[in-house]
Amino acid sequence: MKSTNSTVSTANLYKLDGKIPVTQAIPFGLQHILAMFVANISPILIVAGACNLSASQTAMLIQSAMIIAGIGTLIQLFPIWRIGSGLPIVMGISFTFVSVFCYIGPTYGYNAIVGAILVGGIIEGVLGLFAKYWIKLIAPIVAASVVTAIGFSLLSVGASSFGGGSGTENFGSAKNWIIGTVTLLSCIIFNIFAKSYLKQLSVLFGLIVGYIVAACMGVIDFSALQNTSIIAFPSIMPFKPEFNINAIISVTLIFLVSATETIGDTSALAASGLNRDVTLKETSGSIACDGFISALSSVFGCLPITSFSQNVGLVAMTKVVNRFAIAAGAIIMLLAGIFPFFGSLLATLPDAVLGGCTLMMFGNIVVSGLQMIGKCGYTQRNITIAALSLSIGIGFTQVPEIFGIFPKIVETVFAENCVAVVFIVSIILNLVLPKNMDVTPASK
Fold it and tell me: What is the C-alpha to C-alpha distance for residues 13 and 24, in angstroms, rounded to an integer?
C-alpha cells in the first residue's frame, strides 16, 4: 500500500495540482530557491553600489526582495482574480533593468528609480490585463525566437558564475574551476544513478556537494552572518518616490522589454514542462503579475520583480511542475526575508557552485526554444524570422559599440539586451514579410 502511495505522489510531481507530501515539496522548493538565490540579490548589490546606498539600506532591500519575490511567486502559482498565470513560475529581481538603473540612479537619484518602477509596473500590469487586444502580434515564431534568445543570453551568465563571478579578483582561478567542475559532475552523476523522482533533485545535490567542497577550500565568507538580527520586517516607503519624466520613460520601455521576456518564459514553461502551448489567460495573468508585483516592490523601495528564466530552465530540466512544490520554495523565500540569518546563510552560496549547476539549466532553455521553432514549422518565412532576428539580436549586442550613433536611451535599452533586439526584429519581420514565402515549383 505504501509503495502504491509513493508511486502516486511521485507521479503527482509532474502534475500542476497533484497532491504531494511535505517531505517531497520542501526539497524541490529549496532546489528552486537555491538555483536563483544569488542571482536574485545580485542586481540589488550592483544598483545599490552605483547609487551609493549604505550597507544597512542595501541589506533592507535584499530583505524586501526576498519577501516580495515569495509573495509574487505565490500569486503566480495561485492567481488572484486575473493576476497570476497559475503556472510554476518563480519570481525574482530582474537583471534586465540593471543597466538603465545604473544610469538613472547616479543621474536622478534612487528615489527617481522607485517612482519610475511604480509607474512602469502599473503600466505593464494594465497591459497584461488587456493582453487579448495585442497578444496576436506575438506570433508563435516570435515567441520561439524570444525563448531561444533568453537561453543564449543566460549562457554567459552561467559561464561568469562558473568562473567565480564577473569582476571578482579570483575570476577563472583554479579553485573556481575545481568547485564549478565538481558541482557540475555531481549533478550529472546524481542524475544518472539516482532512482525515481530523486533524479530530479540533481541540482540540489550538486549545490550541496559544491557548497561542502567550497567550504573545505576556504572560499566561503561567513562574515555576513555576524551581527545578523533574528527576525525583521520590511519597511514601507523607505524611499519617497520621485516622478522624473525621463526616468519614467526609460524604465517603462524596459518594462515592455521585460514583458516580452515574460511571454517567452511563460511559453517555454508550458512547452517544456507541460508539453502544450501556453493559453492567453496564462500569458495575460503572468504579465499582469509581473507589473503589479513590481509596483508593490517599489512601495518597499525595491527593484522590479519578474519571472525568473533560470527557474524555467530548471523546470525544463526536471519536468517537475507541481505548484505545491514551487509554493514550498516561495515560503522558504518569505522565511529568508523575515528571518535575516536564514537569508544571509543562503547568500553565502559561492558563484562557482551556482555556475556549475546552471550551465545545464540554461542550455535546456536554448533547446526548448529550438524545439518551439521546430513546432512552428521550417517554412521559409519562419526560418527567415528566426534566423535574422537571432543573428541581429545576438550578433549586434556582442558589439554594443554599434549602437553608438543612437540616442543614449536607445543605447541603454538595446545595446546589451539581445532579448529586446530579437523581439523587435522578429515582430517587424512578422508584420512585413509575405504570409507565403515558400517557393512553389513551376508548372510544366
Answer: 9
